[in-house]
């Protein structure tokens, strides 16, 4: 008994003085999770699932909202001062890419991106940074198909139907989602000329509302409207603007992307609204999996996959519970 204790004491001392791995294991793992729009339910959900990973693996999660480039840089410095080893980020502006990469490197922090992929000076994705995003084009196509099918069901005259395309061109994933929707909608026979571009200044409901309002005002010829954009907030902004102009559930079909609280609250209303559906994507994969990836990178030196694209499933007022369950979200 005494001998065994002596041997293990020697082993512990050896590990302390020479074994870097033992020292590392004793160090607290701290991971930052930086998001561009902390008030948006999607990002709240990502944080929730990141916290689940932290609890499971026993690391400290530092949640930071950074709505501007300055805030991102301050956040990275703060993480470094707190002795974090890495972070996951959805940046407020993908063009900050090279600056963020340089900052993380200078502060000796591992980084991976989620949702919005960083681009370099010429607009190309920075492929060296591991990224998890949604299969934007494919999911956009699902949106366009859902809208086209609903138009058909309602028997709307296409000549009298306009489409509000809430766009945010500076974000590649937004461009791809919306382009996907346009492609399936027009492939189903929707006239391209009736698709009204409504650029938004920021990816929230208020900015989508303003963009949609202008589109509707300028096009009084349409009796029915459909709408789509990069997320549920975009679709909701269009729905609220249309309501203000008298286009209610009977004359508006908007389909969003996300499927979190913004969409669910809409489906829970006693009467249907113009918010017809949403393609559910997984905040669990984007929050939990990225955090686990970062944890394993820090503790096992296992670098995450360079690119992971997640899929989506259409949910409607009558099916959202079931679809969320199937994605493991209920
Ligand atoms: C972007 C959008 C978010 C959400 C994520 C999903 O960041 O701004 O609303 O759709 O993509 O990846």
TrEMBL record:
InterPro entries named in the record: AraF, Bact_Solute-Bind_Prot2, Peripla_BP/Lac1_sug-bd_dom, Peripla_BP_I
Q: Where is this site: The binding site for the sugar molecule has not yet been established, but C-87 may be involved?
A: 90
Keywords in alphabetical order, please.
Answer: Periplasm, Signal, Sugar transport, Transport
Q: Which CDD domains match?
A: PBP1_arabinose_binding
- Is Flavoprotein among this UniProt entry's keywords? no
What does UniProt give as the signal peptide span? 1-25
Q: Which organism is it from?
A: Pararobbsia alpina
Question: Would I find Ubl conjugation among this entry's keywords?
Answer: no
User: Where is the protein found, in the record's own terms?
Assistant: Periplasm
Q: What is this protein called?
A: L-arabinose-binding periplasmic protein
Give the family per the record: Belongs to the bacterial solute-binding protein 2 family.
Q: What's an example Gene Ontology biological process for this entry?
A: L-arabinose transmembrane transport
Source domain of life is Bacteria
**What range(s) does the Periplasmic binding protein/LacI sugar binding domain occupy?**
30-304
Q: Name one GO molecular function term.
A: carbohydrate binding
For this record, the Gene Ontology CC terms, alphabetical, are:
outer membrane-bounded periplasmic space
